Amino acid sequence: MEKKSNKGLVISLVIFILATIGLGVYLAYDKGLLDFIKPKVKETKKEETKKEIKDEELDINSRLVQNLYNEVSKETENPTWLNFWMYNNTGSNDFNMEEDFNSETSEEIVKMQIVFSNLTEKDSLNINCDEYEIPDFQDKEYYSLCYAEKNMNFFEPRAAYKKETVENVYKKLFGSNSKLDTSVVMYANGFTLPTYYYIAKYDLYVAYRAELGGTYGSGGYSTKLEKASKKGDEIKIFESVKKYEESNSSNPTETELTDTFTFVYTFKLDKDGMYNFISRVKEK
């Protein structure tokens, strides 16, 4: 009886030891400690194929290219100095029409000139001066068209623009997140006549004039849209430019070709699906 009991105890002990060893092996295997005994499986690595983004040529007659180009320039066969007036820093009397433009670093006054060049006649308002209390003067020398109408018998249409209209054009050009600075005036041309000041009381940009002016001499720029390309989310438009200046002859209207170069206009896709105007760079 005692022998049977001892035999059962031994069997139970052996079973316990085997079970313990088996559990230990299982845990070690599960933890990766016995990876050397696992069957080797060949891992197939997925090679990521990086596709090089190439330039795609765009049809310059397409609506997309034409719309973008007309926002920032115009084709002109006959030379004129008025082509690029909006890229001058008119506020500082810097008449460098060939200066590079960048929407992030250029003066706000230049951006507002580009905005004005995109406003249309139907955007303007012919306000009744009897119904508005428009300040007579701004910056001493600029008088409102309402003042001119009452005191100089001078009337000029397109006397005002809604801030909303100006802001919509600003965001269309420079992005949905761009912010309009109403403290910056808006010039209508290179002679700053008229100049539009923001009147907060009526939420309007109102026209002012001054006894200023000037003329451009003979010559100017002729322009032609040459090509357009798309790469990723950017579109570039290439405009060939010829510059004519007064010749040395006795005829003041006679001009000669003095330079040829290219303006490259860059646009970038915004989150709303529209293209923002980023820069204009002069290239030889």
What descriptors fit this protein?
284 residues; alpha+beta; 7-stranded antiparallel beta sheet; 5 helices; 29% strand; flat
How would you explain this protein's 3D organization?
This protein is of the alpha+beta class and 284 residues long. 24% of the residues lie in helices and 29% in strands. The strands form two sheets. Strands 1, 2, 3, 11, 12, 13 and 14 form a seven-stranded antiparallel sheet that branches. Strands 4, 5, 6, 7, 8, 9 and 10 form a seven-stranded antiparallel sheet that branches. Helix 3 (108-117) packs across helix 5. It starts with a helix and ends with a strand.
Topology:
Layout lengths: L1 H29 L25 E3 L4 H10 L3 E5 L20 E2 L5 H10 L6 E2 L11 E2 L3 E3 H7 L8 E3 H12 L11 E2 L7 E5 L4 E6 L10 E12 L2 E13 L8 E15 L5 E9 L1
Brief characterization of the structure:
The longest helix is centred in the N-terminal third of the chain and has 29 residues, at 2-30. 24% of the residues lie in helices and 29% in strands. The strands form 2 sheets. Strands 1, 2, 3, 11, 12, 13 and 14 form a 7-stranded antiparallel beta sheet that branches. Strands 4, 5, 6, 7, 8, 9 and 10 form a 7-stranded antiparallel beta sheet that branches.
Sheet/helix structural class: alpha+beta
Percent range for β-strand residues: 25-35%
Number of helices: 5
Q: Helical amount among residues, as a percent range?
A: 10-25%
Shape: flat
Return residue spans where pLDDT drops below 50 for at least 5 consecutive residues: 44-49
Distance between the termini: 112 Å
How large, in whole angstroms, is the Cα Rg? Answer: 36 Å
H and E order: HEHEEHEEEHEHEEEEEEE
**What is the arithmetic mean of pLDDT?**
85
The tally of strands reads 14
The biggest sheet amounts to: 7 strands, antiparallel
